[in-house]
Amino acid sequence: MADTVSSASVPVMLGARGYPTALEWIARRAEAFVIPLAALIVGMALFSLFIALVGKSPVQLYETMWRGGFGSWFSIQNSLSRAAPLLLAALCVALPARLGLVVIGGEGAIVLGGVAAAAMGVAASGAPAFFVILAMGVAGLAAGGIWIGAVGALRHYRAVNETISSLLMAYIAIALMNHLVEGPLRDPASLNKPSTEPLAEAYRIGNIPGMDVHWGLVVGIIACILSWLLIEKTRWGFAARIAGGNVRAAQVQGLAVGPLIVGFTALAGGFAGLAGMLEVAAVQGSANASLASGYGYTGILVAFLARHNPLAIIPVAFLLGGIDASGGLIQRRMDLPDATVLVLQGMLFVVILFSETFYGRFKAFNPDLWQRDDLLKGPDLLKGPDLLKRIA
Amino acid sequence: MSDRGKKAVGVETIGMTMRFGALTALGDVSIKVPAGSFHALLGENGAGKSTLVKCIMGFYHPTAGDILVDGREVGIASPKDASALGLGMVYQHFTLVPSLTGAENLVISREKVPDIIDWRKERAALAQFMERMPFKLPLDVKVAELAAGEKQKLEIIKQLYLGRSFLVLDEPTSVLSPGEAQEVLGLVRGMTKAGDLTVLMISHKFHEVTAFADDITVLRKGRLTGTGKVSELSHKQMAAMMIGDQPIAALDSRAPVPVGARQILTVKALKAPDRTGLKTINIGELDVKSGEIVGVAGISGNGQKEFLEVLAGQRTRDAGDVLVKGSPYGASRAEARTLNVRFIPEEPLRNACAPRMTVAENIAFRTFDLNEAGKQINWIRMSAIRNYATRLVEQFKVKTASLASPISSLSGGNVQRAVLARELTGEVDLLIVSNPCFGLDFSAVAEIRARIMKARNAGAAVLLMSEDLDELLELSDRIFVMSDGALVYETPIAQASVQTIGEHMAGHH
Amino acid sequence: MTERFMLSRRDLLKTSAAGAAIGLASASFPISRAFAAAVTVGFIYVGPKDDYGYNQAHAEGAATLRAIEGISVVEEENVPETVDVQKTMESMINLDGASLIFPTSFGYFDPHMLAMCAKFPDVQFRHCGGMWNKDKHPMNAGSYFGYIGMGQYLNGVAAGHATKTKKLGFVAAKPIPQVLLNINSFLLGARSVDPAITCQVIFTGEWSLAVKEAEAANALVDQGADVITCHVDSPKVVVETAAGRGAFICGYHANQSLLAPEKYLTGAEWNWAKVYKMFVDDLMAGKPLPNFTRGGLADGFVKMSPLGPAVSEAARAQFDGTLAEMMKGGFSVIKGPLKNNKGDVVATEGQTFVEAAIELESMDYLVEGVVGSTA
User: Fold this and answer.
1) How near does any CA of chain A get to the CA of B358, in Å?
2) Nearest partner of C221 among C167, C271, C179, C272, judged by Cα
3) Which of A84, A218, B192, B274 has its CA 20 to 30 A from that of B353?
């Protein structure tokens, strides 16, 4: 090939422009930590202004937040308990996002997963606990998976916008849940709060030994790690990233985009359904209207803040769990309304989304910019007349 | 509506410099475009042509340097200032509203449109204006129904109607048939000769420059590398100014197609809906043999894209067969793999790459799920992907800062090299290519054509769709013309004439 | 506020030094109070404190405790019925030193409050809803609730006089027994004025769903109803929408007269201040708290909003008369002969159900004259 195309050798450097590969690796990775962290700090600074504006002390606020969310073993467990359902709820957003889909209706999958698990728990009553809990998990996964998988199928095969359809289907799911727990699945004894029959004590999921946090946290962390492996290390994940990066390129490569979309959305919904199952088995003990408590929507926030990286979901969920946990203390100690925490969440969300525009902008983090200006300063450039003379 | 009494203006830049942070996009460039001249601005992609033009048009504020209009120094702070001075620009792509008529497009493009438009008055004024124009155009037809050449003329007329007397034309013929290009540039040339207009044309095509321009200016890497009268320069000299002393890849000599070469691609009675769903594309019969390049010419929008999408499995067909080596081909990954079919779509960054994934990952798209033995694997190995990419980047001379750079950070030519590296490695029996050199610079074009020719000589059957007739004439063994969704003309390369092909492209037969 | 803060901090150091000290070691708040708070009481609300409804009624009750020397009140609003409320209770106990907690939403009881009762046997929990059962639930838990049906009956009396169209409207959340009793009581109150009056009911399906509540109120007015009441968490939307359409209003949960001063007839309000004061007095006096307490109008658990300007003299007379009779005790809203709106007899001639009657707790019908369905 070289003999016919060009004899000039073009040096290819594995590290960016000759810099050591390790330095480049660090620079590229560091960006993903430094920018969100800086955004977090900016967001909190802006929030300080807001707090000062309503006449309260930002110092006291952050001290209270620290104490309420992170400052003691009790507070950390409090934050972790709140983070547990967010892990799975965020995966319901992050996995489709890697395929370029914005699914915001995880709430529906959570609710139906919870109802399916509760129904299974009652139906399988009497069987050994291990099998019942397993069956409940499968029921939750399946219900959520079918629900969000349908959103993916509508998207791919019928070109229905997945954002809108998932949101609308969440409303349908909640209505369906209300119908089921107030009708066919209602425990006649639940007079003023319609619920399914309570789960037998043996089928409840307890706390992690030594902690006041239920096993859902472990399930959520495992799900995040598995999702990361799926996306980064398997051929399905790689194919999904191609399709998410450019669906035309995936089609040209003959990748089965339809099954990929349906598979990933179904898995995402399955995780949300599992979150519903855990709510029933570890917290509520039965399915009722309390299942629709907004975890699906907070999950959207978590996934976006984590930039749809399943591993990053873990610390982000913990952070938001902590903010949520400290919200109570802020109300009680500083006489601020509950909405204060929503303002903080909103500010962080906006600032972090805005920080997206800074990726690739800083030379320190972007090896592609290293030495680029030198290319234009090359000494080989001749003024036109000189060159003409040389050609002649 | 301003009056067209204005005569052409001349424009001059002195020491234009534009820096974006550390990047110097334009360094100390002085050009002179006298009133009534037709000036060509040449340069490879990224040479600084559009930066210079954007400085003149007020889109950028140059870091240093002055602009003179008719010899007087002017400050151009915004595109508004530029249009007040009579400077206008015609873009590579159309900016007309397709659902409105030509007349409506002209009237609404004015800076001040009255709240209530008195169409009778406007039409009379337009008719008067058109009388003074050398272009004849149906102004009462919706723009969507105009041919590409007519749209381009309307774009130019729009600028004149707005009172502009210095026009920048940004690759004005890239969407036109050869005949249309000749006509439009001829008319513009006539207006400059008459002293009504000054033109600064950005172009890649030497034959257009030679035929129409008075003078050229050449930029390379943000610097002025040459300027002079067209009459005194050869194509070779112009090329040297554009690319410096880089070597240019030469084509493999064309091995003759062996007699009785195996038929690789067969398309029979293919029918599929077009983008609008209103028309059908209809390919009666097409076959491509091993070791030949079959070119498909046509003006964009005549069904080539849909035909390609059917071949690539992105569009369902209504009827007909696509066979590769005798087996039905549906473009699945497994079929492409067993039949050795490769596909290189146009605009590779848009159609063949995931822009934010790394160079290494993009190069691995075809093979990430295989191990060295060619067996499918479930767990991908990044080290294998990196090693594979290292080899290919070296072999295909892809210039990248690093394998971990996002592929979108590469220049167009290097993106195409990376795609070629991916698709031309290993055994290739059928290669389907679409506009492979669109928008690429000189040396990349030569190299990429050489790669395609080499694949042909190695025995691949190549189906080449291109809107660039020069490219087809250079590479093809046979040429088809596609018009209105059908293959309307076929000629072996030996008998091919630009004029006949052009007429079929324009649908005159 | 600061005072409260420092008090609770001292409590905290006393009660749970080990866990919290880590977090507090760096805190720089002075501990300089001359006296210690005897009692910290926690209130938890499912919605906002100023919802003109269910939560506001509780918050108003809580606010009256603040005036009491030695009582410190901590509150948290918008707490969902999930693990969040468990953690909020825990946090109030661990960080604020609360020794008495009122989780006020119905859904907080099982499993959330019960889990905390088991975990903190020294803390007292009292839940609004009447679900405590001596045989099933621990002794540090308890229930309090009010009978508000007679309040809705009195609403009905005022409405029966005000209506011209003889059609009333009721925006309801879910067809559960408490809500059904309120609907039935409202209509029976109105029928004590004119037996020809009917009441259309619309169920929204959720306790708090502003859009549907507004739609329901509009639909009722469109169908000719000219007096509207409701049973949803926050009557604000219903009151404003209906009053905006020119209908009269009967309030619920709290006093909504500020939202529609001209159109507001009266309202059935909770008077939780009395209940909370009772618990706190017992606690301060060192007496054991009652585990189960319920009461109605006569007991002061429920009160009526002052009658509005649109209430006629005749209405006022009947309203006052009925109220006086109720205060005597033994009044029955549900009494035979009475049919449901499907024509089945639900109470035979001479049969009466006083407000505390256990049969009313499983009510599953709408009485004759109510237009609507429980399913």
Assistant:
1) 11
2) C167
3) B274
Burial C21-51 (b: 16+ CB within 10 A, else e): eebbeeeeeeeeeeeebbbbbbbbbbbbbeb
Interface check A233 vs B, CB under 8 A: yes
Q: Which helix (H) or strand (E) holds B328?
A: strand B327-328
- Angstroms from C107 CA to nearest CA on chain A: 7
Q: Which positions in chain B touch A260 (Cβ < 8 Å)? A: none
What is the C-alpha to C-alpha distance for residues B87 and B163, in angstroms, rounded to an integer?
9
Neighbours of chain A (3+ CB pairs under 8 A): B, C
Is the reported ipTM for this assembly greater than 0.90? no
Structure tokens given for C257: 């007269």
How many structural domains are present in chain A? 1
Nearest chain B CA: its distance from A386 CA (Å): 9
Q: Where are the domains of chain C?
A: 2-146, 149-269+300-371
C94 touches chain A (CB under 8 A): yes
**Could you check whether the bond before residue C337 is cis, i.e. omega within 30 degrees of 0?**
yes
Residue A32, amino acid: A
CB atoms within 10 A of CB A229: 14
Has residue A62 been placed in a domain? no
Q: Hey, what CATH topology would domain C149-269+300-371 get?
A: Rossmann fold (3.40.50)
- Establish if A97 belongs to a structural domain: yes
pLDDT in tens, B443-458: 788 888 999 999 999 9
Contact between B137 and B175 under an 8 Å Cβ cutoff? The reply is no
Q: Which helix (DSSP H) or strand (DSSP E) does residue C302 occupy?
A: strand C302-304
Among residues A59, A62, A148, A165, the alpha carbon closest in space to that of A112 is found at: A148
State the Cα angle at C242 between C239 and C247, rounded to 5°. 115
**B428/A contact by beta carbon, under 8 A:** no
Task: Measure C172 CA to nearest chain A CA, in Å.
Answer: 13
C2-146 and C149-269+300-371 share one CATH topology? Answer: yes
Choose from B51, B324, B397, B400 for mutation: most chain A CBs within 10 A.
B397
Give the CA-trace dihedral at B167, B168, B174, B177, to 10 degrees. 20
Is the minimum CB–CB distance between A71 and chain C shorter than 8 Å? yes
Nearest residue in chain A measured CA to CA from B249: A5
Radius of gyration for the alpha carbons in chain B, expressed in angstroms and rounded: 25
- How far does the CA of residue A29 sit from the closest CA of chain B (Å)? 11
Least CB-CB distance to A253: which of B366, B399, B401? B366
Fold entry, domain C2-146: Rossmann fold (3.40.50)
CB count in 10 Å sphere of residue C168: 34
What is the maximum alpha-carbon separation in chain C?
73
Q: Which residues pair with A124 in a beta bridge?
A: none
In chain B, the domains with their CATH numbers are 11-243 (3.40.50.300), 246-252+260-340+428-440+449-509 (3.40.50.300), 348-426 (no CATH)
Where in the sequence is the domain holding A201, given as residue range(s)?
85-330
What are C202-221's pLDDT values in tens digits? 999 889 999 999 999 999 99
Asked whether residue A216 is domain-assigned, the answer is yes
pLDDT digits (tens, 9 = 90+) for B246-261: 666 677 778 787 778 8
Residue written as tokens 């791919």?
A156
Q: What single letter denotes the amino acid at residue A206?
A: G
Is residue A175 a part of any domain in this protein?
A: yes
Task: Let me know: does C188 contact C333? Beta carbons within 8 Å.
Answer: yes
Residue that is written with structure tokens 């064309």 in the block: B254
Q: Tell me: the pLDDT tens digits for C257-302?
A: 999 999 999 999 999 999 999 999 998 888 999 999 999 999 999 9
Disruptive mutation site among C15, C29, C66, C83 for chain A (greatest number of A CBs within 10 Å): C83
Neighboring chain B residues of A363 at a CB cutoff of 8 Å: 22
Residues 119 to 178 of C: which have CB under 8 A from any A CB?
Answer: 129, 174-178
